[in-house]
Amino acid sequence: MSLYPILLNLKEKEVLVIGLGKVGTRKTMGLLNTGCKLTVMGKNQEKLNMALSERKSRKSNLIENILPFIDFRKNDFEIGKDEDILRGKTLIFVCTSDKDLNEYIALKAKDLGILCLRADEGMDSDFINPSVIEKEKLIISISSSGNSPAYSRLVKEMLEDIVSGLDTDSIELMGRAREKIKKMNIKDNEKRELLKRLPFMNKEELKSYEDNCGNKG
């Protein structure tokens, strides 16, 4: 499988998860912070309810803001009855324990031109979920191209020690300073040099550019 790595902006996009066992619950929980319009479908939602309750106990405001944007369908997908739920989606995650059903839904998604992930057949999917490390605004994704998720997890564990020691608090400051620098009335080569220096600036210098670079140059 030849994969093209991207990070998707799913805000306001329609996303569907079918099957809410261990894998479907994990996919659902991973989508909560994306701002997507999420539909989850499956009769047995106990694992998802437990995961949501645990998240709510830790980040109550987050869950209260997200839940109104989740469409819960408490029934299993039925062939010949539920195909309409596929329409208009940007991504579909198929996570049922029925291999034939998963194949049927994936083929229907393909006919509709919708990107689909089959949890049971990663190599036949349109995309895969990489292992992810997140700290502040830093996102690192790791993939073995679907060959060995265990190897991806091993690499993730190795990198987590490095990332934990990084000072990522300034990333948002860098973003704001970057936008201001791009608008400065200076030569392009000077802008490029300033942008290259951003990761090496301390917070005071970053704030200085953010606050005052409109007056520079």
From TrEMBL:
- Decide whether keyword Isomerase is in the record: no
The first-level EC class reads oxidoreductase
- Report keywords, A-Z: NAD, Oxidoreductase, Porphyrin biosynthesis
Pathway field: Porphyrin-containing compound metabolism; siroheme biosynthesis; sirohydrochlorin from precorrin-2: step 1/1
User: Reaction catalysed?
Assistant: precorrin-2 + NAD(+) = sirohydrochlorin + NADH + 2 H(+)
Domain of life of the source: Bacteria
- Pfam families xrefs: NAD_binding_7 (PF13241)
Do you know which InterPro entries this protein is assigned to?
Answer: Met8-like (IPR028161), NAD(P)-bd_dom_sf (IPR036291), SirC_C (IPR042518), Sirohaem_synthase_N (IPR006367)
- Give its E.C. classification number: 1.3.1.76
**NCBIfam families cross-referenced by the UniProt entry:** cysG_Nterm
Name of the protein this chain belongs to? precorrin-2 dehydrogenase
Species of origin: Acetoanaerobium pronyense
